[in-house]
Write a structure and sequence with these properties.
It comes from Herminiimonas aquatilis. Pfam families: MFS_3. Its main location: membrane. With 536 residues, this protein is mainly alpha-helical. It contains 18 helices and four strands. Strands 2-3-1-4 form a four-stranded antiparallel β-sheet. A hairpin with a 6-residue loop joins strand 2 and strand 3. It starts with 24 loop residues before the first helix and ends with a strand. The N terminus is likely disordered.
């Protein structure tokens, strides 16, 4: 979150093994159930995309299937992340799974009786996307609860591996079933695939979270989450790089059904095999990525993955041989999982526990927002200029997006210790203010020697991010013109309760930044702190 961390506090997180998270019984059960559920999801995506090519020949409508999948994540991931931070995550996840089970079963029933229209197909796909949007932030946020910190990167990689195992199996299976039984059976199997996750969540006995303070309300929690993201430089770098990659990368996913049917003349089985090739490449990438991380920097891997995916889009536009294209798509899957894993781990490691679901939800909003917007853009472009032209334009844009690495480098982000830290005893007052009292202004007075002034200014400005992440509405540092060397840090929060939350939100990373600033303070006592409350 800032480079001004004392290097002594920075620790490199190394997993003991790429497979060590699977030793955890709960993680293993949830991972296996999620793989099965994701197979069903990929089967639906293939079935929906292929069914739409039968219901409508308009490239825009075909591309809108991908948009209908991605748009709910853009619209609802942040509200879902807020709820996941303030309610019981297990119950919330269970509700999301039942929502998807009911939607998939309803679509299957309509398909069996021949009542599915393009509008119904898009609507059902959208509702399934809403369920995925509800589930994704809490699923991401519970990973640190299931495995120790040293296994976090491996757990994230295993989750990505599971997604891509399902990507390799689901499309091929869907293509086979579409050829012999039709989309209704595909949609029914998607509904059944959710049952394993429902069972694991139902029998999971979670430890209730002990909260010293009242639960946050919805809208203040949204504001707190957005303030955190705005004041988290590491997370902002991840978000910028995600927009640059996924906006152009969405062209491959949204236009692949058209390439398979119109450019290559393939049936449902051939389309499923092409998607399976992407999945096999992604699985290979997930297995090899830990070794590649040791040999190459994060930015070098990200740029390499971007260029490789751009080349695969050019091949998608130009190759007319399905076998050669399948080989190329192996590399596109490799590139996709590499970039996805890099960004996902970056988002996980830059999100503190108290706001993790919200911060990861913002990442998902950016990810799927870029995918939805890109799908609509490339669908319109393909409709006007042809599918190959749209893919070539997207590939050129992806190559140019590598320039973002010059300004926003993933390699320069520090390793963060975001474990909670009780850095100070909370103020004890004879007459405790009411929780809704406020706004509250907090002043911290420092005495700084002249020779340390410049170093102090650099250190104290790092505190701006700390205060903002914790909930400060404003922040400033001022020097007393009548008494040189006397500096006053001042920040405002909206209520006394919000100030109390700042104490609970303080992390070890924040503590290191604070101690750096305090190290320049002169005198035997700590800096003087004042609390001023606006009169009612």
């Amino acid at each position: 979150m800032t480079a001004a961390i004392d290097k002594a506090t920075s620790k490199t997180v190394k997993a003991t093994s790429s497979w060590s998270p699977l030793k955890n019984k709960l993680f293993r059960a949830l991972w296996l159930a999620t793989v099965a559920s994701n197979i069903g999801t990929w089967m639906h995506d293939v079935g929906a995309g292929w069914m739409m090519t039968s219901l409508s020949s308009d490239p825009f409508m075909v591309a809108m299937v991908q948009a209908a999948t991605s748009l709910p994540m853009f619209l609802f991931a942040l509200p879902s992340g807020v709820l996941a931070d303030i309610v019981d995550r297990r119950k919330y996840l269970l509700f999301a799974q039942i929502w998807m089970l009911a939607t998939a079963a309803g679509l299957s029933a309509l398909a069996f009786v021949g009542l599915v229209t393009p509008e119904i197909l898009l609507g059902a796909t959208f509702l399934l996307g809403v369920g995925a949007a509800m589930a994704a932030p809490p699923f991401q946020a519970i990973v640190p609860e299931l495995v120790p910190k040293e296994d976090l990167a491996s757990a994230v990689a295993l989750n990505s591996l599971g997604i891509n195992i399902s990507r390799a199996i689901g499309p091929a299976l869907a293509g086979l079933i579409l050829s012999f039984a039709g989309p209704a059976v595909v949609f029914m199997l998607n509904a059944l695939s959710v049952l394993g996750v429902v069972a694991v969540l139902y029998f999971w006995k979670t430890t209730p979270r002990v909260q010293r303070l009242p639960a946050e309300h919805f809208l203040p929690a949204v504001r707190a989450g957005l303030r955190y993201v705005h004041a988290a430089p590491v997370l902002r770098v991840v978000l910028i790089r995600a927009v640059a990659f996924f906006t152009f990368g969405s062209a491959a996913w949204s236009l692949l059904p058209l390439v398979a049917r119109n450019e290559l003349g393939l049936g449902a089985g051939g389309y499923g095999i092409l998607l399976a090739c992407i999945g096999v490449g992604a699985v290979t990438g997930a297995v090899l990525l830990p070794r590649l991380r040791k040999r190459f920097s994060t930015d070098a891997l990200a740029i390499g993955a971007t260029l490789l995916f751009a080349v695969s889009m050019l091949a998608l536009a130009m190759l007319k041989n399905a076998v050669l294209l399948g080989i190329v798509l192996l590399f596109s899957g490799f590139a996709w999982i590499a970039m996805l894993s890099i960004l996902n781990v970056g988002a996980q490691r830059s999100s503190a526990g108290w706001v993790k679901a919200r911060a990861l939800a913002v990442y998902l909003v950016v990810f799927f927002g870029a995918m939805a917007a890109g799908s609509a853009i490339w669908g319109q472009t393909a409709g006007k200029f042809g599918t190959p032209t749209a893919l070539i334009i997207a590939a050129i844009g992806m190559v140019l997006s590598c320039a973002t690495a010059l300004r926003w480098k993933l390699d320069l982000t520090p390793d963060l210790n975001l474990a909670p830290s009780i850095h100070l005893q909370r103020e004890t007052m004879s007459d405790e203010p009411a929780h809704d009292s406020g706004p509250v202004m907090i002043n911290v007075e420092y005495r700084i020697a002249a020779e340390n002034a410049e170093h102090f200014k650099k250190a104290i400005h790092a505190m701006r991010h700390v205060r903002r992440r914790g909930g400060a509405l404003t922040w400033g540092i001022f020097e007393d013109i009548a008494l040189p060397g006397r500096y006053v840090e001042t920040f405002v929060v909206e209520s006394w309760l919000e100030h109390l939350r700042q104490h609970d939100r303080f992390t070890e990373n924040d503590k290191a930044i604070m101690l750096r600033a305090h190290s320049f303070h002169q005198g035997p006592d700590a800096p003087v702190v004042q609390h001023l409350i606006a009169p009612s």
